[in-house]
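Why should sequence recovery work at all? Because a backbone constrains its sequence more than one might expect. Tight turns favour small or flexible residues, buried strands favour hydrophobic ones, and helices have their own preferences. The token representation captures these environments compactly. In the example below, the structure is given first.
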């Protein structure tokens, strides 16, 4: 008689799992974590979530959430499977020892490559989180980008973004403040262009995908790089534009 499958810790595709960590490919529309301890909304990992400890506790065991992605963003998310490993992973993020790379389709042409430095401030209004650029203050948000492709007809650019800091809505706000709005962004985006591309390219959501995570494994110390393939809906948009990765 075959043994029963152990309870799942996530419904997201698992990209890497060992005794210490689990890395998943979070679909767009799924929360990194519930917004309250009593929330029943679907999240990246299974079980009850404690906001203070940042830990899921489900039938498959505990998972400590190490970082977050916006609900509308797809891609790589890291969880730790014990408290000691969680502390090590969080320390690596604090020391900027983890590399996170994103693919973003934006309005216009920001140039071949560059660095964006801004001071970002986040506020809550009527339960909604909003981030804005504050001019004239010391930068607290940084990213590097390289343009992978540019579509001159539609005036769109595909960027590879190396996120150096991790502020709320950082990529979206830094891009929109330079008039390089992320396509499909229904908060900070260019709404007229969103409507056009929804019709022309069937782009129905934010074009932002966390595609690569690189870090030293918290137990072995060896370099670990994990990649998340571009989801079919975003790959279809690039195909319609004639852009290949």
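From this structural description, the recovered sequence reads:
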């Amino acid at each position: 008689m075959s043994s029963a499958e152990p309870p799942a810790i996530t419904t997201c595709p698992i990209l890497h799992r060992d005794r210490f960590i689990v890395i998943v490919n979070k679909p767009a529309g799924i929360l990194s974590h519930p917004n309250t301890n009593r929330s029943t909304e679907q999240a990246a990992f299974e079980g009850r979530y404690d906001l203070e400890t940042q830990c899921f506790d489900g039938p498959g065991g505990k998972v400590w959430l190490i970082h977050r992605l916006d609900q509308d963003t797809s891609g790589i998310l890291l969880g730790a499977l014990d408290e000691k490993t969680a502390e090590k992973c969080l320390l690596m993020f604090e020391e900027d020892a983890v590399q996170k790379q994103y693919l973003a389709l934006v309005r216009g042409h920001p140039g071949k490559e560059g660095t964006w430095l801004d001071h970002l401030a986040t506020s809550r209004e009527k339960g909604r989180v909003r981030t804005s650029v504050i001019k004239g203050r010391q930068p607290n948000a940084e990213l590097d980008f390289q343009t992978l492709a540019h579509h001159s007809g539609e005036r769109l650019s595909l960027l590879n973004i190396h996120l150096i800091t991790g502020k709320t809505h950082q990529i979206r706000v830094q891009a929109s403040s330079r008039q390089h709005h992320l396509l499909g962004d229904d908060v900070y985006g260019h709404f007229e262009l969103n409507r056009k591309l929804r019709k022309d390219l069937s782009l129905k959501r934010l074009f932002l995908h966390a595609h690569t995570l690189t870090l030293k494994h918290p137990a072995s110390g060896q370099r670990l790089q994990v990649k998340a393939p571009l989801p079919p809906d975003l790959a279809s948009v690039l195909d319609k534009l004639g852009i290949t990765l």
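A few observations help interpret the result. The mean pLDDT is 93.
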